[in-house]
Amino acid sequence: MKKATIYTTTGDNGTTLLLRGERISKDDARVEAYGTVDELSACIGLLQSFVAADDPQQCFLSGVQTTLFSIAASLSDCGQFAVVPVDDATLAAMEQEIDRMEASLPRLKGFLLPPTTKAAAAANVCRTVCRRAERRIVTLLHSTQLPHTLLAYVNRLSDYLFLLSRALDPENEKIWDNPCK
Q1: How many beta carbons lie within 10 A of that of residue 34, not counting itself?
Q2: Rounded CA gap, 70 and 67, in Å?
Q3: Which of 33, 39, 75, 92 could form a disulfide with 136 if both were Cys (CB 3.0 to 4.6 A apart)?
Q4: pLDDT 10s per residue in the chain (181 long)?
Q5: How far apart are CA 97 and CA 152, in angstroms?
């Protein structure tokens, strides 16, 4: 019996294998999109390490990671899955969580500087990676069709992560003093 190994050497030429068996360049827009979604999922895992184990956001963030894995698989497959990774109910659940958090936070009075606590800063890094994932998906949309809910979910997710960052450190928000006023 041959020992399994993590390296295959098949990507040494700068290509990768998609779910349906097609080999494409590692800098293809599709790889950029699902790779950035994968990076976002890893960042969310790091964020979870800074959030208290009994915090209700742990469960919500775990659900987000599951959804992100499905989104990445769908992007790899260019939306050919029989099941859409983000349905209207998933999108509505994200919006409900955003509304719940937003109602518990003070009104925003300006642009915020990045937070300084580990948990809030990690959520903010997740937000910026999420925005990059959104841009990569938009680039992919120039050449392929994807379910509209997929991009909408990633857009809402960045809003959620912004609010989560605020919720994780509400006492230390620093408003940017715009010198261009």
Answers
A1: 28
A2: 5
A3: 33
A4: 666 777 776 667 787 777 777 888 788 999 999 999 999 999 999 999 999 999 999 999 999 999 999 999 888 876 565 567 788 999 999 999 999 999 998 887 767 767 778 999 999 999 999 999 999 999 999 998 888 899 999 999 999 999 999 899 877 767 667 666 6
A5: 15
